[in-house]
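Quick question, first post here. What does this chain look like in 3D?
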Amino acid sequence: MTMMQGINARWRRAGLSACAAAILALSATAAFAQKNDDNIYNAEAGKPALGGFYRPVPGLRPIYFVDGKQLPRRDIEQMQVGFPYKSDWAAAFAARQASARAQKPYGEPGGACWPQGVYHDYIGYPSPIEITQTPGRFQIVHERLTQVRRIHTDGRPHLAGDKLVPTSHGDSIGRWEGDTLVVDTIGVRREFSLGFNMPHSEQLHLVERFRKTDADTLAIDITINDPVGLERPATTTLIYKRSPPGDRTTEDFCVENNRNTPDENQIVTVDMGKRLKYGFDLPDDAWSENAE
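> Answer (accepted):
Ran it through. Tokens below.
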């Protein structure tokens, strides 16, 4: 070996050692960042760590099942058909869809910058979710409209009687079944929707099961039941992938893209005639306080 070959060989060995050191340093940094990220989102000792920043898997739309059978999809409208509405509710849904196709939407509250509602948050505009898990509380922030949902896991019961005031996200109570967080939600306002133009009554009852299928994948199994509007429950599973450490939500304001022009104080108002059509075009039995 010549002197020059020896020098080149030493340089190559030094270069490989530097590359290996750099890779190890990057791996250590990534591991530290991931561990630090876990600490930020998960502060509930002794429970599975479900917290983190997740993005929906691209291209996956919710597929509904009824009695274990998949509902057909109408590709043109990118929607499920055969959702198990009772006849009068199916008619209300069809009227909303027809109006939307005629460029005169009225059935979707989000069109007036209202919150989307507890279930529509997931599927209306598939956006990232940020979950923080602390003792007694499981909190979800949806990037869409920067909406916050609080799920109580401290053993308290549902609100009842006059204390159960329906809200956009309802009253959510969580409990652990092994590695799965089971969330039971009632008290969702009927003005909101299950999906684009999909109505429901205030008897809506959602059961969600949050579980990790691997270190970076969060599955949410959802059962949708509404004894007033649905013939039988429908089920679906949503899949989210964990984003790299450092990824965060951004602000999303409906008013910036709202069809209803803000006034000089940047307040959006909707005339009463229009407002009554946003989600209030429901069958008569939706208004019964004792509906079961």
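The helical segments are 3-41, 87-101, 120-123, 272-275.
The longest helix spans residues 3-41.
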